[in-house]
From TrEMBL:
It comes from the Bacteria. It comes from Roseococcus suduntuyensis. Keywords: Receptor, Signal. The lineage of its organism: Bacteria, Pseudomonadati, Pseudomonadota, Alphaproteobacteria, Acetobacterales. Belongs to the UPF0065 (bug) family. This is Tripartite-type tricarboxylate transporter receptor subunit TctC.
Amino acid sequence: MMNRRTLLAAAPLLATPALVAAQPAWPTRPVRITIPFTAGGASDIMVRPVAQRLEQMFNQPFTVDNRAGGGGAVGVGFAANQPADGYSLLVTTPGPLVLLPQMQSGGAFAYDSARSFTYISLMAGAPILCAVKADSPITNLAQYAAAARRAPEAMNFGSSGIGSMGHLTGTLFGMQADARMVHVPFRGAPEAQAAVLGNTTISLWDTAAGNVAAVRGGTLRGLAVSSATRAATLPDVPTAAEAGFPNVVSLNWFMLCAPAGVSPAIAERLHAAINTILDEADIVNRMNAAAFVRAERVAQPQLAGWVAAEQARWTPVIRAAG
């Protein structure tokens, strides 16, 4: 017969099979990853290779569902209201998650960044690129700032939408350059680029990843990137700091989320899988080629606090921009 001390010592071992048996198998059917932007943009470039690797790791389809609109609010709201069963995920940027609700405080949103999601993994970051059409007379960021100062509100810039990191970084630049610029929101990076190439918008502040091909192909001229160092795939494009604007630093990060209440076991499995995938040589090469940088590593339980801190960092910019 086991005495009390022996029974207590054995309890964890005895409980383990029961706990394992009680946990439902996951995944046993396809998993949907919502992207709240149009197909072909930086989020697609980031997510689709990772989704393919998740399929291989978990032996189930991980499908990408682009649901654009409202600066990303449509797709984020959709994802927030799905069942918290691990079969509905979201990859979003800071724009619709933490910036847009502050910029439209009177609006009704179908989600709350502090309560609607379980944050699973901070994946990567994309520098913001300031660019003009290749035949523009503006050849550097100093000339761009000077042109904006000469004709207040005549300089306009496109981005992926209201509240996007491109919007906020362009606004931050205007504050630092003492220039009043007009923001022109689009549904995604391809539309913003098309407007510049079609001469309906003068410039853009948008993710470098969505515009690398146009810069390297000679149709866009990159004036600066917002990262702390130059993008590996755009070595001739200086940072904003190098161009004389040291406080214009930002990254459009990508966060994998699930609806609030998802099983901690599922969140931990996905967090570990994403970390493994992002360290693989093929994925690293793909990310570098698209001008992404690996985001800082944040433990899954600390991600909610990280998001809150990021929101607080941009609050003064949003308020100053009105």
